[in-house]
Specification:
The protein has about 550 residues and is of the alpha+beta class. It is about 30% helix and about 10% strand. The chain has helices at about 15-30, 50-60, 95-105, 115-130, 140-155, 160-170, 180-190, 250-260, 260-265, 270, 285-295, 295-300, 340, 365-380, 405-415, 480-485, 515-530, 540-550, and strands at about 35, 50, 195-200, 225-230, 235-240, 245, 305-310, 325-335, 350-355, 380-385, 390-395, 395-405, 430-435, 440-445, 510-515. The strands form 5 sheets. A 7-stranded mixed beta sheet has the order 3-6-9-8-7-12-15. Strands 1-2 form a two-stranded antiparallel sheet. Strand 13 (about 430-435) and strand 14 form a beta hairpin. Helix 1 (about 15-30) packs antiparallel against helix 2 and helix 3 (about 95-105) runs parallel beside helix 5 (about 140-155). The radius of gyration is 28 Å and the shape is globular.
Amino acid sequence: MDKSWMHSDRRSKAYEFGVEAFLNFAVENLLTTTHIRCPCVKCVNLKLFGVGIIRDHVYFNGIDQSYKNWTFHGEPWEATTNASRNVEEDDGHSRYSFVSEEIDMDDNDFGDFGSDPYEFANVIGDGDQPVYPGCRKCTKLSALVKLYNLKAKHGMSDVCFTELLILQGDLLPEGNTIPTSMYEAKKTLCALGLSYEKMHACPNDCILYKKEYEDSTNCPTCGISRWKEGKDSILKEGVPAKVVWYFPPIPRFKRMFQSHETAKSLTWHAARKSIDGQMSHPADSPSWKLLDDKWPEFGNEPRNLRLALSSDGFNPHSSLSSRYSCWPVILVTYNLPPWLCMKRKFMMLTLLIFGPKQPGNDIDVYLEPLIDDLKSLWVGIRGVYDAHNGEYFTLRAALMWTINDFPTYGNLSGCVVKGYKACPICGDDTPSHRLKNGHKICYIGHRKWLPINHPYRRHRAAFNGKLEYGIPPEPLTGEEVLHMVENVDRVCWKKKSIFFDLEYWKYLPVRHALDVMHIEKNVCDSIIGTLLEIPGKNKDGIAARLDLLNMGGQN
């Protein structure tokens, strides 16, 4: 195919015809118009867009002229001698162990090399090439990873990092291979598999501009523009008003099995035995056993993954902006032993939802790409290589539950978590009471969870002046919750959670778990603050005494 147009003037007809021929070639080979790597000089095949946006980028930014073999867009790759070389040394350890040491990740957490042989050949070459002639201590790849680690650790800008690379190149002997710009460094590091999808979102959290909305410029729900509005109230076309970063988990799951040690650890749960009959690992939980019993073809394969999802908001600007809220979404793999599954390198960041405001109940909009991947994982991902057993297998995974604080629980589950019906167990029968002096709602039916003969059930003065004879209600099953949320007359539910799109979700006995840290900290702060009469933390005030008197309790 003629590629001479790549060097033509962007205003010429040759360039115009070449761009259209390239886009047609990509669509015919990739069979998609919405998820194509952009070859412009800024994106350098790192980002996925639709055909319309790629056309604009190639015209405005120009095409990367070093992209001579269109392997990302369906052109056959011609094997090189480097690609046939073995990735691992004779001792069984990856030659790229310095990468894991530098940024605290698994040996194979940086790329599914087998899926992209062209990049694999480049990585092999950079891993063998000394940083300057005669250097035996450092290669081009190891030097670049260490420098990039400094950039991330100390928050260097791209301009600062480029100047550092130039200075480093001037200090090293002639013939050194240090890149001279952030652009060149990014092209090398992209081969390590640090891929992501940068998705545009409606500022009002209505939609993601993907699938059928890929080329839309206005939100079909609220009508607001996709583009950011400048200080002069003029829209900056091409600059999104809100961005969501998605880090696909499937390639990283594949890479976990490409590491011999990690692949072995992922089946640790199958060999363990519960000696005392207590629940010491999620493998002892009813949810784990239900997946094994209801879907035996899933449970019989110990390599199938059991996952948990956690999310919460934080302020990345510390005290500089108290109103900004950023929401990461993290996956945890329970197949690993307890001493590994909560390690930082195995806690998988999948979504980063930027503010300035929190997504609230609209968080389902942002979870859509992750749920799509979880659906694919439930069906099965074929051709995953297990380095421990030396074989290919079909990888499946199931999300067991979410872990979060109580407000986030309401956002993810769709349950009401404030007001008179805020108890997710009692629902419409929540025993609530508004305090006249404290101006808050209290929930006074907690004694019904005590044993039937517990003395606190007969205490009047210490509580609300009444005896407690009630029995605790049974938690709703997933099928009961699904029936309620599909009913328009629901009272305690705000929406149908997107997690019900997962085939197995309604059958799980525990779908959402509360973070113990938040509960323990808040309760401990209240008790200690009251006992020590700490200003601002003391709950024993005049309003509390008056409210207790009004309820018939002891003052």
